[in-house]
Amino acid sequence: MTFVAAATNTNVFLRRRQTTTTTKRRHFFTNTTMMMTTTRTTARRHLSRRNSFKGWWFPSCGCFSSPAITSSCTNTSSCTTSSSALNSTPVVPAAKPIPSVSSFFSASSTIRENENRKTGGGFCGGGGKRFFFTQTSFTSFTSSVVTRSSSSSSAATSGDVADAIAKQGDLIKALKASGKTNQDEDVKAAVAVLKELKAKADPSAGEAKKNKEENSSDKKKKNDGGGKGGKEAEAQVTPRSEDFSKWYLDVIRECELADYGPARGTMVIRPYGFAMWETTQTILNEQFGMRGVENCYFPQLIPYSFITKEASHVEGFAPELAVVTQGGGKTLEEPLVVRPTSETIVNHMLSQWIQSYRDLPIKLNQWCNVHRWEMRTRPFIRTLEFLWQEGHTAHATAEEANAMAMEMIKVYSEFAEKTLAMPVIVGKKSSIESFAGAKATFTMEAMMGDKKALQAGTSHDLGDNFAKAFETTFLDTDGKARNVYQSSWGVSTRMMGGVIMTHGDDKGLTLPPKLAPVQVIVTPIWQKNKDKESVMASCDAITKILKEAGIRVKIDADDTKSPGWKFNFWEMKGVPIRIEIGPRDVEKNACVVARRDVPGKEGKEFGVSAEKASLVEKINVILDEIQDAMLEKARKFRDENIVDCATMADLEKTIEDGKWARCAWEGSDEEEKEIKEKTGATIRCFPFEQPSSVGNCIQTGKPAKEVCIFAKSY
């Protein structure tokens, strides 16, 4: 093994600069120069060792070592250098000139941090942390080392950048000492300049720091207000355009909507997320009541024999069933199914309740939980246990049952668009995609931000299939026993997931006002203690005014957090409107109103009157504007990503591009399955709204009666 030494007699110099807390020393070496930053203690250690080992070593094997520090080379696979050789007097072989930085780096390796001061490999740096080189690609490290070329101008440039970094750091400290925070614009600007300077001096440092923070499991979330959220919380949300799936999970976590349960595939819905579900319950209960539907409750445990009575039903649900076989320490005589849906047990009870046509119609609904043993889960979208409502009706005729099923999918679609601002396409499912045991299934399909389809709600015309299985009959007006005809319909907490994926952005949630648990957040702003009382009094007054007007409003009176932190936190939570009140606003009996859906100054309105009638009208108008704007934005996005396809090649290209394919279809179930296997897309529905001209089926080439939509889905 051959070593090349850059010794003290080859133009090594030391440069010293005193800062407020540390002394930084930089060592520059001829043609292979490295900047080293250390604390006072470590710097002294290096100075004392400078005369003893006479320089830094660059072994020909690719290792980077200081013979005074390490006793062996890290390149154990090829390096045979002994400890004695490392500690011997360095010699510059005649046949081995001092290597260039580029040639050395190409043969060397990436940097890794070792907190435990393990032996082996060379180090640089201080403060108790050592950086070791391992035998891998060294490309990323070349930018992290400050090198000096043969010209003196390069060294001067490095020194200038270092001085600029130090001065910029002092500027930021001075700004914060004056009472500024990380949320203030002048501090943000100064920090941005500092980052640019550091990137220029050491482009790899920022990425290395980022990776270190991401990989630290015990890293604490910090901010200028001392709490969770703000810019720090925003940084925890992966950009939506970068990784949609991770962004979705980040939003749920950071916005405190839900958390993972201890059992695989389960979730805990937190208060903020559950408030959205409660709003859903309130609005839909009103719609149900208008149609004569009454709320009730059926048992969660269902005898297994009930499931098997309807052949297609058991076939469809068998893979998803959770079955109880023991209870009280004993094996049950009959296994019990944990409710996947309630058609079977409802029919069992209806067969006992219904005697004649006078008992019809029956319209029932229950809000409950159901269990389906899903293999791939995602919070809100697909979990082993989820919340939903399921309606069940019984009628004397098939026409009445079908009309009820159609009526309820209309209720759902209006709720989705008017309350959730989530545009949907309503239509009929193909036979393959229909509910197990249904005569026909109607659905509403929504396009998410990643262009996948979400089945947001369904309604089923059950015909008399379950009535036959359970002998649910009634005596008609002619005295003959006839089967009842039924419908069932439901929506679940997956709609909450749909809202997130439809409207969210890189900052987090964007909630439609009609669904938002908090429609308005009031944020007090003051710098001097003497202003606190008047500002808080004004905030309290405005909050009271809005509450009395039926607006869901909250005041953030936590004075341990800065206004900037609060702005970012509540933006992340998706609150539609933010009201800001400072001393000047108090003097004018006014406030500042900011919209969540319009970022920056464009979404702010200054000098809004705090007078009761005027303020209430203003806020209600803005809430309606936000609601309408969100729906229109989502509808435009959907329509732009639906492509009319005339051939199978068109369909395959559209699906490959991640869009929805609309095409004429008369194909068979088997041909539909073939497309699913080939593209991953399914028929989402045959829309109720059909074009005037349908065209030929893309599969058979024959004239088709209707168009359908193919898309990948959740």
Indicate the proportion of strand residues: 15-25%
CATH architecture of the largest domain: 2-Layer Sandwich
Average of the residue pLDDT scores: 79
Cα gyration radius (Å): 34 Å
Structural domain tally: 4
Main pleated-sheet profile? 11 strands, mixed
- Please state the overall shape, judged from the principal axes of the Cα atoms: globular
| Cα-to-Cα separation, first versus last residue | 60 Å
Regarding quaternary structure, what we see is: single chain
Classified by CATH, the class of the largest domain is: Alpha Beta
Secondary-structure class = alpha+beta
Question: Can you say what the CATH homologous superfamily of the largest domain is?
Answer: Bira Bifunctional Protein, Domain 2
Which residues form runs of ≥5 with pLDDT under 50?
1-156, 210-235
CATH topology of the largest domain: BirA Bifunctional Protein, domain 2
Number of strands: 29
